[in-house]
Design a protein that fits this description.
This protein is of the alpha+beta class. It is about 30% helix and about 40% strand. The longest helix has 24 residues.
């Protein structure tokens, strides 16, 4: 192998490594899990509106429950990203309404060789539902 070929391979590997690191840095540390408690539906179009209900006091239309969605936020992302993940999960499972039923923070100790670190996760629990048609009886 010539030196110029080795230099091109090294540049290519550095470029791949850089892109991987940027990708890891840009990804949000958020996970979600939907547990079906009702009938699953086919996904709705991405352009569909999904209603968010944040409080029991807020007016909530009649709906059929599809499941319980847990979203865990492991990094200091803003709340809009939590709702974005919840909307996406709801839409993929045919839901057009999400109702926030609880939110908590949990701190996990993590030990390192020299010192102790703590990691805080925010846990949000939603009901995912399908709004009932007002013409249904």
């Amino acid at each position: 192998m010539k030196f110029s070929e080795h230099k091109k391979d090294s540049y290519f590997l550095k470029k791949i490594l850089f892109m991987m690191l940027v990708g890891i840095g840009l990804t949000s540390c958020m996970s979600s899990n939907l547990t079906y408690t009702g009938t699953p539906y086919p996904p709705i179009p991405d352009s569909s509106k999904i209603k968010i209900v944040l409080s029991e006091k807020q007016d909530c239309p009649d709906y059929e429950e599809i499941g319980i969605l847990q979203v865990i936020q492991e990094r200091g992302d803003n709340l809009s990203k939590v709702f974005s993940v919840a909307r996406q999960e709801a839409g993929q499972n045919g839901g057009d309404i999400i109702i926030l039923i609880s939110s908590n923070s949990k701190t996990f100790p993590q030990e390192n060789v020299d010192q102790q670190f703590q990691s805080t996760s925010n846990i949000y629990v939603f009901i995912v539902g399908k709004i009932k048609n007002s013409n249904e009886k």
